[in-house]
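Q: Here's a chain of 533 amino acids. Please give me its 3D structure as tokens.
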Amino acid sequence: MTIRNPILRGFNPDPSIVRVGEDYYLATSTFEWFPGVQIHHSRDLADWRLVTRPLNRPSQIDLRGDPDSCGVWAADLSYADGRFHLVYTDVKRYGRTTVGGAAGVSLRDFHNYWVWCDRIDGDWSDPVRLNSSGFDPALFHDDDGRSWLLNMLWDHRPGRGRFGGIVAQELDRGAGRLVGERRVIFQGTALGFTEGPHLYRRGGWYHLLVAEGGTERNHAVVMARSRDLFGPYETHPDGPVLTAKDRPDAPLQRTGHGDLVEAPDGTTWLTYLCGRPLPASDRCVLGRETAIQPMRWGEDGWLRTLAGDALPVAEVGTPAGEEAPVCERDEFAGPALPPAFQWLRTPHPEQVFSLVERPGWLRLHGRETIGSHFTQALVARRPLAFRYAAETLLDYVPANFQQAAGLVCYYNATKFHFLHLTVGDTGERLAQVLSVLPLGEGVSAVSAPVAVGAGPVTLRAEVDHERLRFAVRGADEDEWTWLSETFAADLLSDEATLPGFPNFTGTFVGMACQDMSGAGLPADFRYFHYLEE
């Protein structure tokens, strides 16, 4: 068997894994993208298939108003008594909330919820709100049948460490509520930023796994153990169990936020978050991805990598051949979006798009501006490689300059490139690129326009590492008209940011339609073609 890391490419962060019989299920976070949470299935830990996005109803979650990179954080998937359980955070406030500098008050809102389902691909329950004391909730089901909720504790008080340790409180699953008092069970190590807890029982010990060091280059998987669930916990004598900290040569960077699973043969595997920087700019345009590798338990009862070096590995098993590039052409022929696509925030997709109003086309209704935190018509997918092309056929006749639709490479409201059709002052239809970039205090610019004739127009984006180019082709044209500018693709990354903003999602590529006039003029897209080059 060959496992090539990352096993989930292109923005699949904060992995949580569980095995039920011969089946593995892996949950990852989706932040402000709807539907919430992605769950993949595998039988061999190498090949994974998306089976469900369980938070898909207005009664389960509403992300409108959530800031960029907030929303659904660090979903935790577990299985107990014949039922799947999922706990997750909905982050409602983050960034630019600190008053008085580092010693000031940092007010943020983290609401933790619990849903369940008897089938992984069934209709998951409406949520039970558990607490709001911090983020990264996880459930631990003990051998005695009791269940415990863990999460990091947020400390907003001046002069305190914001990451206040890991707390535990019992969850009465029958009553559907937390009971007893919450207790701090672990304060963390000198790496700081203690978050992402998971708890396991093995050999008479409670093993606590956490993420530390922050989710950038100092990210690490750290473990501690205790004979009692509430501690005290002793930390691993070797330091982090897995990290690329201080190893810029490691093939996977930013490694942390891990979770453990035991295979039927007794081997232990660690799945974790990672990032792959561009070689030239050192920016992770694909966002946070998911990797996995085997681990071993030592004679001293501590977990280590197979080599004992705490380093991530790019490949497990025998060396594999070249990986086939992805080539997907979605025709929008059915009543539902193709599985690769998501939209932003709203639990009411009928207000944003339709696949039945014009059969065979994806219709986007002109809504709020790109970057709105409420209702914007933007449907997109994750790119999976550093070199790719995206193409779509657009049928759209804007009436005024406030109406625009087209092809977008999007990270968030502060960084995107939007190739769109609009009209000029004399009524001529134009193609141009609106770029919003995280430079200085924020920069926006519009490229030189290209005149476009009547009829549907094909739009194309080509990304080659740091470089992005756009082209248009009219209905009666055989050749592409390339816009003269080359755009910075690497600015659509976690590392390129304005101060005080969270940046966790990676880049998306897709289609968008905005109508600042309020008329709601729709745009129709015939297909979307994604090709890795």
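Q: Can you summarize the key feature?
A: The radius of gyration is 23 Å.
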